[in-house]
Amino acid sequence: MKRAEERAAWSFLAPWVVGILAITVGPMAASLYFSFTDYNLLRAPEWLGLDNYIQMLTDTRLHTALGVTFTYVLIGVPLLLVVALALALFLNKGVRGLPFYRSVYYLPSLLGGSVAVGVLWRQVFGKDGLVNQFLSLFGIEGPGWVSNPDTALMTIIVLHVWTFGASMVIFLAGLRQIPEEYYEAAAIDGATGWKQFRHITVPLLTPIIFFNLVLGIINSFQTFTQAFVVSGGTGGPSDSTLFYSLYLYDQAFGGRLNMGYASAMAWLLLVIIAIFTAINFYFSKRWVHYGDR
After folding, report:
1. DSSP label at 196?
2. Phi and psi dihedrals of 71, rounded to 5?
3. Residue 172 in contact with residue 92, Cβ under 8 Å?
4. Do 79 and 157 touch, CB atoms closer than 8 A?
5. Planar angle of CA 240, 78, 288, nearest 5 degrees
6. Which CATH architecture has domain 51-287?
7. How far, in Å, CA of 16 to CA of 35, rounded?
8. Given 3-state DSSP classes, what are the helix, strand and coil percentages for the chain, each rounded to the nearest 5?
9. Distances in Å between the alpha carbon of 277 and those of 74, 93, 135, 179?
10. Which ranges in 180-224 belong to alpha helices (H)?
11. For residues 206 and 286, what is the distance between their CA atoms, to the nearest angstrom?
12. Which H/E stretch holds residue 46?
């Protein structure tokens, strides 16, 4: 009976095991090998050792891409979390038609990474877009937000913050798990709304904040579609929207077919994400409060 159950379990697991080996583990191992080679898909890989990684030290466009991506992550992720939490708090007050608002606010998360929304964003923040048309009502002549190096990145950050729906729904679920008795007891003791938020809501919500923070950082480092569409696939004016993933794509498929260097860049990105995640987990011991502690 035990052997039969094991065979049944492995038969159900077999598609997943084959999939993860063929689609995830296999390509990762191949990319690790290619990262030490000169490879362009048209000829056999030529072993270079650490040359691709050493080249990164002098690649100025790579440094620019890292700067753009770090700026995007360090500004966009906190703003998204603040907006998502604020709206979750508002909806948690018992707003009528909550399912409708929850669906409406979640919709941008489903569409934010699509090509259509990226094209729409270019139109909204273009020289003759809706933003400048609105500003013209007050006699203000706005710039071409997407084509201006000083504002191009901020338009993509605004697009990122606009996709707050998924984080908001998770925050809302967490708020629903906080017992109302805590707020009633605090109100009896004279705690104001701000003190209740600071000493009850935030501490009990820290596991949810931590979860959204980690996922937000990981997803932001991998942002591609929004940057590719809004910047026209070129990195924008003066490389102001040259995201790391966009530069990686340019190296691999943008006519260069520099698969070896692109593979090395992919592994560098993996290391960067792993470091940020490890830092978050390390410091989470100081500010994340779980129910059993």
Report:
1. H
2. -60, -45
3. yes
4. yes
5. 145
6. Orthogonal Bundle (1.10)
7. 27
8. 70, 0, 25
9. 14, 33, 41, 30
10. 180-188, 193-196, 202-221
11. 11
12. strand 46-47
Please, are residues 38 and 48 in contact by the beta-carbon 8 Å criterion?
A: yes
| pLDDT score recorded for residue 291 | 64
The DSSP secondary structure of 130-149, one letter per residue, reads HHHHHHHTTT-----TTT-T
Can you tell me which residue has the tokens 């191992």?
29
d(CA 31, CA 193): 53
Amino acid at site 113: G
Return the structure tokens found at 210.
């931590």
10-residue averages of pLDDT along the chain (293 residues):
83 91 92 94 91 95 95 95 92 75 73 70 82 86 85 90 88 90 90 90 93 94 86 81 93 87 96 96 90 56
Tokens of 162: 């606009």
Closest alpha carbon to 185 in 199, 205, 204:
199
Q: Tell me the sheet residues that pair with 47.
A: 37
Does residue 211 contact residue 140 with C-beta atoms inside 8 Å? no
How far is it, in rounded angstroms, from Cα 112 to Cα 162?
Answer: 8
Residues 6+ apart with CB under 8 A from 194: none
CA-atom Rg of the chain in angstroms: 24
Q: Tokens at residue 158, please? A: 């605004």
Distance CA 147, CA 20 (A): 41
Beta strands in 119-237 (DSSP E): none
Q: Name 243's Cβ contacts closer than 8 Å, sequence gap at least 6.
A: 65, 68, 69, 72, 223, 224, 227
Q: Where are the domains of the chain?
A: 51-287
Torsion sign across C-alpha atoms 8, 11, 16, 21: positive
